[in-house]
Amino acid sequence: DNTIQSDGGSGAVIFTAKNPRYFTLNEQGVAAITWHDGIRTRVTVIYEGENGIEKGEMYRLDENGSVVAV
């Protein structure tokens, strides 16, 4: 399974050099997830509590590096 769950408590940080299938964040969590746009590696940074990101919900990145609820 290629799922990353932030279970390190409040404010946990996830950084991955490979785009996971799914990920979740805890309260005040942050994730920096890499993805490839066909030319270069990019990084999308996601913060719990911003742009509709809710703790404990499952998300993934689409082919454009945008966060999508699962």
Provide a compact summary of the structure.
The chain is mostly beta strands. The chain has strands at residues 3-5, 13-16, 22-24, 30-36, 41-47, 59-61, 67-69. The strands form 3 sheets. Strands 2-4-5 form a 3-stranded mixed beta sheet, with no helix packed on it.
Shape: globular
Average pLDDT score: 86
Tell me the helix content.
under 10%
Instruction: Determine the oligomeric state from the structure.
Output: single chain
Quick one: how many beta strands? 7
Distance between the termini: 15 Å
Strand order of the largest sheet: 2-4-5
Radius of gyration using CA atoms only: 11 Å
What count of helical segments does DSSP give?
A: 0
Q: How many strands, which pairing sense, and closed or not: the largest β-sheet?
A: 3 strands, mixed
The percentage of residues in β strands lies in 35-45%
Write the H/E string, N to C.
Answer: EEEEEEE
Q: Which structural class fits the helix and strand makeup?
A: mainly beta
Stretches where pLDDT falls below 50 for ≥5 residues?
none
